[in-house]
């Protein structure tokens, strides 16, 4: 039973905040790059969620306004401790960025001109690209479960990469097709069951 149903302690909220604070502080590259760390910290170490549920949160987070990693933190916080948990988890994951951005903004006129900073950012960009590639690959392996989902993945990629279709359109079409396929699968299952009973 989750804490939102069984009550929660201040220590649990503190833990929730600092777990997401740590994730926000050491992960570069945005939401998808955070996926491996979120899985390790939340699914493997603490058993707060499952990998399958995490993928669902990512899918919903991608389809709703806002930053995907923040949305996922909000979902998990709410699942753990209701509304206060959602607020605490969200605050935890954004606080490191607020601190760092505030410091950088204070010195931005000189900061971006420093040669070693430019070289460091170039290296970080390469590392982030690697993290994103791994996250997308892992995400695809877990999301693609049959030939239909593989075809949908390829169609979505082709439509966005080669034809410039907006991501919102791809998401809405994919969601509609997912609902349609699930209804067809359920209907077929019922028909098969009826045939067996006859």
Reconstruct the topology from this structure.
Layout lengths: L2 H4 L3 H17 L4 H15 L5 H13 L4 H39 L1 H4 L3 H29 L3 H15 L5 H31 L1
Helix proportion:
over 70%
Biggest beta-sheet profile? none
Q: Report strand %.
A: under 5%
Number of helices, where a helix is a run of at least 4 consecutive DSSP H or I residues: 9
Please trace the helix and strand order, writing H or E for each element: HHHHHHHHH
> Radius of gyration from the CA trace?
21 Å
Number of strands: 0
* Contiguous uncertain segments of 5+ residues: 1-6
Helix-strand category:
mainly alpha
Q: How many angstroms does the end-to-end distance come to?
A: 41 Å
- What sort of overall outline do the alpha carbons produce when their principal axes are compared? globular
Mean pLDDT: 81
Plain-language structure description:
This protein has 198 residues and is mainly alpha-helical. Helices cover 84% and strands 0% of the residues. The chain is built from 9 helices and no strands. The N and C termini lie far apart (41 Å).
Please summarize what this structure is.
By secondary structure, the protein is an all-alpha fold. It has helices at 3-6, 10-26, 31-45, 51-63, 68-106, 108-111, 115-143, 147-161, 167-197.
């Amino acid at each position: 039973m989750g804490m939102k149903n069984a009550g929660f302690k201040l220590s649990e909220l503190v833990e929730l905040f600092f777990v997401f604070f740590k994730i926000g502080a050491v992960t570069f590259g945005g939401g998808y790059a955070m996926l491996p760390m979120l899985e390790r910290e939340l699914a493997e170490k603490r058993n707060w969620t499952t990998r399958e549920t995490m993928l669902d949160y990512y899918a919903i987070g991608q389809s709703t306004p806002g930053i995907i990693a923040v949305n996922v933190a909000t979902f998990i916080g709410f699942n753990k401790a209701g509304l206060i948990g959602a607020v605490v988890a969200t605050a935890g994951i954004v606080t490191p960025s607020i601190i760092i951005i505030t410091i950088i903004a204070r010195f931005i006129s000189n900061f971006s001109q420093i040669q070693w900073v430019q070289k460091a950012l170039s290296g970080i960009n390469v590392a982030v690209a690697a993290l994103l590639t791994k996250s997308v690959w892992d995400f695809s392996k877990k999301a693609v479960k049959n030939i239909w989902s593989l075809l949908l993945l390829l169609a979505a990629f082709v439509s966005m990469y080669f034809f410039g279709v907006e991501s919102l359109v791809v998401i809405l079409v994919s969601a509609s097709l997912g609902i349609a396929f699930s209804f067809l699968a359920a209907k077929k299952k019922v028909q098969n069951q009826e045939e067996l009973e006859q």
